[in-house]
Write a sequence for this structure.
């Protein structure tokens, strides 16, 4: 898969530059984990981290932001692979200018991140399902003749000739009219 190969090369570049920049411990481990996770399609955060790193020109903050964007775009529950710090998205540009964010959230390794409110994608699916369900028309009630035809005991077949085995609708119609005129069957 071409995308995976490109992301692996970008991930290796991330690891090398993290080692060159002197990032030891958590940063280098996170970079190695991102490379290992590229083969796992369920970890969209790792791909987001690599893309964020490459798009920001080698900035580790871009990798963190890309990882968080990967979590958000996945629209599902995620378990954090390592300790992370989350900042509000609207403050990312201020961080690039060197200012501190007004608040940060520390996310421990192993914590689950899940959407609390339904995402736009989830709401669109619910709306599509509602439209699909409204397209189905309720079944109409069968007429007395249709109920008569459905009963196996009322079926009259041709016994000979070219129509042998087929329903004799003429005789069935006469029998139905006769049953309708019978006072015992008036309620049917």
């Amino acid at each position: 898969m071409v995308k995976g190969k490109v992301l692996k090369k970008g991930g290796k570049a991330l690891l090398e530059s993290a080692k060159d920049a002197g990032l030891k411990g958590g940063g280098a481990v996170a970079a190695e984990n991102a490379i290992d996770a590229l083969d796992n399609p369920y970890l969209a955060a790792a791909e987001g981290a690599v893309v964020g790193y490459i798009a920001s020109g080698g900035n580790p903050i871009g990798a963190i932001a890309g990882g968080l964007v990967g979590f958000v775009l996945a629209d599902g529950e995620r378990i954090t692979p390592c300790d992370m710090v989350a900042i509000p998205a609207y403050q990312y540009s201020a961080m690039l200018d060197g200012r501190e964010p007004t608040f940060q959230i520390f996310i421990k390794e192993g914590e689950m991140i899940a959407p609390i409110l339904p995402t736009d994608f989830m709401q669109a699916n619910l709306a599509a399902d509602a439209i699909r369900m409204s397209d189905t028309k309720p079944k109409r009630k069968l007429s007395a003749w249709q109920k008569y035809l459905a009963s196996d005991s009322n079926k009259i077949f041709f016994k000979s000739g070219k129509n042998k085995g087929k329903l004799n609708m003429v005789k069935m119609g006469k029998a139905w009219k006769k049953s309708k005129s019978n006072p015992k069957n008036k309620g049917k």
Q: What stands out?
A: Confidence is low (pLDDT under 50) at residues 37-42.
